[in-house]
Amino acid sequence: MVTRSESRSEFSAQAPSAVVMVRPHHFRVNNETAADNRFQIWNDDVGDLSPLVHAEITRAAALLHEQGVVVHLFESEDSDAPDSVFPNNWFSTHAGGYVAMYPMKDLSRRRERRSDIIDMLKSRYRVQGVIDYSGLEADRLFLEGTGSMVLDHIDRVAYAVRSKRTDPIALERFCTQFHFEPMVFSAKDPSGYDIYHTNVLMCVATDFAMIGLDMITDTGRRREIVHRLKRTGRRVIGLTNAQIEKFAGNAIELQGGNGRVLALSTTAVLALTKDQIDMISVSARLLPLAIPTVERAGGSVRCTIAGVHLTPRD
């Protein structure tokens, strides 16, 4: 069994100290993605939600900054990219100086890819190369970044729920290039619908993992996943279906100025039990971020944050 220090201040490959966020000026719940995202709340009569989301992301970025997390905050003026608030789906960064760009299922989401974000990463961090998988879209092979995959940067495992947005061929290519072991499984909500993204189901932190075990349909695979997580010395915190629906699994561990924090929504925190909070608090402070309007689009805090796993330039 791998063991690690419980010290919150100790560096962890799992917890980036810098993030990219995008503040949208033309936010709306995207009806193009609603077909396979059961977490979306669609209502034509709610009016313009952009000012509310702009304020929520502004405040969330400020709270992360107060915790000592470096926040690279970008604006999105594209009215045809309603989900631009979720940048973690189209790119990810990796130790060793690499950036991956991903094939997106829906046309509107492909508009979220931005050269200025990649250029910023190259100028501020040591980037050796950019691996662009977006060409797989022509063959309808999709892999929506760290939405499709929950990456264990310590044990080098890519956990991935089978869905229309996560193609096994694209996943295999990524894992081969970036030296992860793919662990694919099926998961469904209580109504029998496929879970659209893995990161609404689970969060892997340095010393613990949160996961909606009851949604994993294969009991044998469920045991394998729990065993693999425990083998690394992590505490496995099982989440109920109701907690998953409140985005309790859509969290990300970050390295702050005074130790590691677990960023998640206020909706998610309210769904956790005291025992679960106590287990998390052993190694990370909870940082609730209020983004209820963003959550109408079917994603929560983890989806709004793209972690930077790169070495800063001097």
Automatic annotation (TrEMBL):
Coiled coil: none annotated. InterPro entries: Amdntrnsf_FN0238. SUPFAM superfamilies: Pentein (SSF55909). It comes from the Bacteria. It holds the Pfam family DDAH_eukar. NCBIfam families: citrull_CtlX. This is Amidinotransferase. It comes from Mesorhizobium plurifarium. The lineage of its organism: Bacteria, Pseudomonadati, Pseudomonadota, Alphaproteobacteria, Hyphomicrobiales.
